[in-house]
Amino acid sequence: MRAGEINAPTLVMAAEQTAGRGRGRGAGSWSTNRGNLAVSFVHFPTSPQADWFALSYAAGLALARVLVEVCGFDEADVGLKWPNDVFVRGAKIGGLLLETTNTPQGVPGLVLGMGVNLAHAPRLDGAAYRAANLRQLGYQGPERSVVLGLIEAWDSTTRRFDRMQAPRTSLFRDWQSRAMYLNEAITVRLEGDRQKVGVFLGLDERSGALLLKLADGRIEPVVAGDVGLLGGGA
After folding, report:
1. Rounded to whole angstroms, how far apart are CA atoms 145 and 141?
2. For residues 234 and 85, what is the distance between their CA atoms, to the nearest angstrom?
3. What confidence score (pLDDT) does residue 3 get?
4. Nearest residue to 116 via CA among 97, 96, 138, 99
5. CA 90 and chain centroid, separation
6. Secondary structure of residue 189 in the 3-state scheme
7. 210 SS3 class
8. Dihedral angle over CA of 158, 163, 169, 172, nearest 10
9. Which alpha helices (DSSP H) does 95-166 contain, by range?
10. pTM of this prediction?
């Protein structure tokens, strides 16, 4: 946010993206072909800043809601992969990235970047799953309906989030109800080429951390990493 131009909730859309970036282990640049959705929501939460990370979970649920209510997919078709990927019928159709920022006046805010494969899908080399686009999965409605749905879902989500008291237990439970790989053996790739292997038990109800049951029976919370099925890619 530069020159103080954005100081209220704002939506920014790009017709094409060539120099986006991911975050975490192995994160590279993101690109978005024309016909897909690349949007960023700027938000200035009134909730305590220590809780803002949980809006990433809320954003995944907001997109899932649009996929069901606007695009017409069945509830059972839509899944969330920790920490920030969204799937329909086992194929990745979108991703999220939440970052903190400050205005030139020093006011803290958040930027939620969201990419949705509406008309095109990239090839995912080395992944244990495929990517797909909403058109090939059956949604033939207008782009406008999806965008308006996202605006409404994000607006209602942030309003509810700012009123919600910590810990965000109900939010983490709602996210877990859509979690992929729950109770399955997974690998979690960490920074520095390290990895953990265990069973994904769900989310900690107070912190939102991924709970991983290790081979020795210990349960370890994980706050950042890339998840994949054991023996498959991330």
Report:
1. 7
2. 11
3. 43
4. 96
5. 16
6. strand
7. strand
8. 0
9. 134-137, 143-163
10. 0.88
Comparing 174 with 165, which gets the higher pLDDT?
174
Other Cβ atoms closer than 10 A to 193 = 8
CB atoms within 10 A of CB 182: 16
> CA torsion sign, 180 to 228 to 223 to 56?
negative
Locate 52 and state its tokens.
């803002």
Contacts of 205 (CB under 8 A, 6+ apart): 167, 169, 172, 173
Instruction: Retrieve residue 220's tokens.
Output: 């370890």
97-107 b/e with 16+ CB inside 10 Å = b? bbeeeebeeee
H-type alpha helices, 87-142: 134-137
According to DSSP, the residues that pair with 43 across neighbouring strands are 110
Q: Which domains does the chain possess? A: 10-176 (3.30.930.10), 185-229 (2.30.30.100)
Q: How confident is the model at residue 234 (pLDDT cuts 50, 70, 90)?
A: very low
Reported as a pLDDT band with limits 50, 70 and 90, residue 28 is: very low
Structure tokens at 88: 């329909």
Judged on CB neighbours under 10 Å (0-12, 13-18, 19+), 9 is middle
Q: Tokens 């080399």 map to which residue?
A: 125
Q: Which pair of structure tokens corresponds to residue 166?
A: 């910590």
